[in-house]
Design a protein that fits this description.
The protein has 211 residues and is an all-alpha fold. The protein is built from eight helices and no strands. Helices cover 71% and strands 0% of the residues.
Length: 211
């Protein structure tokens, strides 16, 4: 099978986060759906959905500067199917953890809105340092970019009157679109600081004599 490490990473994500979702769905389906904000009354505000769309477009555009992300963004194959399942799991679980739990807890303790947003982004970014296990540059890039994404989704969460629905949808779309290419690029060790690594061995020499 091509890209075995990528499938392995997605399988770990689905099995761990999927288990959390399955337990909650089986124990109290309607309560869990309500908790996520997918109800007629608690699905967020028009502003929050507009902001979620803007965040999704901008983040996917910036990620598409990586060639593998651009190549696999709209490619429909089995890898994309697995990535979509993984995106559902990540969108639900990570938004519960980094938006609902972190921001609501800080709000209950009297912390300011700005502190809630920054803390949400910071914890979200630190969690993605795992991308640096193979390449520290990839880890730093992932942490910084997801820190900014976490801040943006924190703003969406507040604009939605603390409904997770717009955040989950934005998170799902971003992950489903860019994750296959990102994982493949990481497997190839092509991720650098804010951009794709260039293979110096393939660049023409500036010292080559003219014909």
């Amino acid at each position: 099978m091509k890209h075995k490490p990528v499938y392995l990473m997605l399988a770990i994500l689905i099995s761990t986060m999927g288990s959390f979702i399955a337990i909650n769905v089986l124990s109290n389906f309607s309560g869990f759906i309500t908790y996520l904000g997918f109800t007629s009354e608690g699905h967020g505000t028009p502003l929050s959905w507009c902001l979620a769309l803007i965040v999704t477009v901008l983040y996917c555009y910036s990620a598409s500067l990586i060639s593998d992300v651009k190549k696999y963004m709209f490619k429909v194959d089995f890898l994309k199917f697995v990535a979509v399942v993984g995106a559902i799991c990540a969108g639900v679980v990570e938004e519960i953890l980094f938006r609902k739990w972190v921001m609501d807890y800080l709000a209950s303790e009297g912390f300011s809105i700005i502190f809630q947003i920054v803390a949400s982004g910071l914890t979200f970014g630190l969690a993605h340092l795992v991308w640096g296990l193979k390449n520290i540059k990839a880890g730093i890039n992932a942490a910084l970019s997801t820190f900014l994404l976490g801040i943006a989704l924190g703003v969406v969460y507040l604009a939605s009157d603390r409904s997770l629905a717009p955040c989950i949808v934005a998170h799902f779309l971003i992950t489903a679109l860019i994750e296959p290419g990102l994982l493949i690029a990481a497997q190839k060790d092509k991720l650098g600081y804010w951009k794709e690594k260039t293979n110096k061995s393939t660049q023409p020499s500036t010292n080559a004599s003219a014909d």
